[in-house]
């Protein structure tokens, strides 16, 4: 079976519905066809200033949400990135074949660093996409299911794989992104021209939120001054986003929803959507809570995942070290 890799950062207690629809849903369906490897990428989240205790809690919570959403630890390896040292080690080698200008062109770095200012921007945020390339290339992953915001980072991973192969001989599999257009970019409810994000949690629908909070978030979603329920990303980004979420969860096409809501108001749409969202997320939340009640069992799953992937990672790193001419220890 071809291999697949993906990961999420433990940067909040809860994942949001963008993470779920943009990536996690694909993770679940793809684990049947692929040898799937899913990581909680805790090293990536060190680019954000976080309390150590909170980071540990969030790392377990993120893993619990993978499983609660349907990732099956019997089929897929679920592990914590920092448990496999090769991620950090391969990053160094890949850093040395990445152009400074090439890394500087990453739009996520530009966005995040301009929000944080130069004092708040660390070098880790800059080299983040190289660590991500290492995550993927270590496992010879053919496919990487992610949201649209990761397309450019994936392109960098591909370029680095090709460059390394060109310079040192065939070493890495060149990974393909797997991005589902309809749900690849769920927008923020408060700022519907920006993507929903764990870094601005006020406008997100969270997997672990209680149903009342979810309904309230949806009710207060920013829309527009018209009354018509119609998909139009440019003129009506808020309504279009609600329709995308609705369609993804409920199975009706956007065109069908437009017809069904003809003559109805935004309030009706929001009320119904809240019900649909709570219907899907409710069971995920409950299952995640159960899993979090037994941290020892979660840790066992994560240890097992790391054990399964470690031999793959160490074989790749040994191959890389050899190719670039690092003297093997005797
Ligand atoms: P952060 O703000 O900490 O970067 P994030 O919400 O961007 O958080 P990540 O952990 O960086 O979450 O990304 C996890 C996965 O979710 C990636 O595959 C990413 O492409 C996807 N994703 C993130 N936000 C969205 C979104 N709004 N719509 C669709 N997919 C998304
Ligand atoms: Mg992100």
From TrEMBL:
Its main location: cytoplasm. It catalyses: tRNA(Trp) + L-tryptophan + ATP = L-tryptophyl-tRNA(Trp) + AMP + diphosphate + H(+). It comes from the Bacteria. It is an enzyme of class 6 (ligase). It is found in: Cytoplasm. The keyword Iron does not apply. Keywords: Aminoacyl-tRNA synthetase, ATP-binding, Cytoplasm, Ligase, Nucleotide-binding, Protein biosynthesis. Homodimer. This is Tryptophan--tRNA ligase. It comes from Mobilicoccus caccae. The lineage of its organism: Bacteria, Bacillati, Actinomycetota, Actinomycetes, Micrococcales.
